[in-house]
């Protein structure tokens, strides 16, 4: 137990160092684009490069492209190092997104962990969240499911996520993909949709992923 706690503290420290480096890189954009505008354009570009869907609305200036390239590697390393710490949520908070009028109030990872324990983790359960943000609550629910029932339980689960902000949909997709890679497993079905939960008006963005049905292998005689 002591060894495990020591390893967790080390991972947390390394994640903090990487996140600090990411914020330093973002700061380089302040006088060329502004940090919030740069981060939004960066997330748009990163999500497009990950999926080939929804081209970025604003192109990052050529002189900031090396910064964006390095930033993607630093953030990717930070998320993989500690996928339950909500790296992107923290970066958005530090970049002033709470001032943009989108009601952006990220759930602290500790609250996400507590909620996952309260909700429980039945091996046959699916997960739905109407205001998913950067995906931290879903990540902690999946982490709790894996801890209690193993990776195979997640392979039988379906995850349904919604958010009114297209940028949050992209952040959620990026963090979940990193989480699946770090845990070497994926859910049976994943749906992340941009939608107004109350009016059910869509925001013209959605990511869907579904495992193909298993087929019996045949061997020719």
From TrEMBL:
UniProt xrefs under InterPro entries: DNA_methylase_A-5, SAM-dependent_MTases_sf
Molecular function GO labels? DNA binding; N-methyltransferase activity
User: Do the record's keywords include Phosphoprotein?
Assistant: no
Q: Which SUPFAM superfamilies match?
A: S-adenosyl-L-methionine-dependent methyltransferases
Keyword Metal-binding appears in the UniProt entry:
no
- The segment(s) forming the DNA methylase adenine-specific domain are 82-177
Residues spanning the membrane:
none
> What keyword terms does UniProt attach to this protein?
Plasmid
Signal peptide feature range: none
Spell out the family assignment given in the record's similarity comment.
Answer: Belongs to the N(4)/N(6)-methyltransferase family.
Give the protein's recorded name: DNA methylase adenine-specific domain-containing protein
């Amino acid at each position: 137990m002591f060894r495990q706690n020591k390893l967790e503290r080390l991972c947390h420290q390394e994640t903090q160092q990487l996140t600090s480096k990411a914020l330093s890189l973002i700061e380089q954009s302040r006088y060329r684009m502004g940090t919030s505008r740069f981060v939004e354009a960066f997330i748009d570009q990163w999500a497009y490069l990950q999926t080939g869907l929804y081209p970025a609305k604003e192109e990052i200036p050529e002189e900031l492209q090396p910064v964006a390239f390095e930033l993607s590697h630093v953030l990717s390393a930070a998320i993989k190092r500690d996928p339950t710490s909500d790296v992107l949520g923290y970066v958005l908070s530090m970049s002033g997104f709470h001032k943009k009028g989108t009601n952006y109030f990220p759930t602290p990872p500790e609250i996400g962990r507590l909620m996952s324990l309260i909700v429980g983790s039945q091996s046959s359960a699916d997960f739905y969240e109407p205001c998913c943000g950067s995906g931290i609550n879903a990540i902690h629910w999946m982490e709790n499911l894996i801890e209690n029932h193993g990776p195979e339980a997640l392979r039988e689960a379906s995850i349904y996520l919604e958010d009114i902000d297209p940028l949050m949909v992209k952040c959620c997709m990026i963090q979940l993909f990193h989480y699946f890679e770090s845990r070497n497993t994926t859910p049976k079905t994943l749906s992340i949709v941009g939608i107004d939960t109350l009016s059910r008006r869509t925001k013209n963005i959605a990511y869907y992923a579904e495992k193909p049905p298993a087929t019996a292998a045949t061997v020719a005689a």
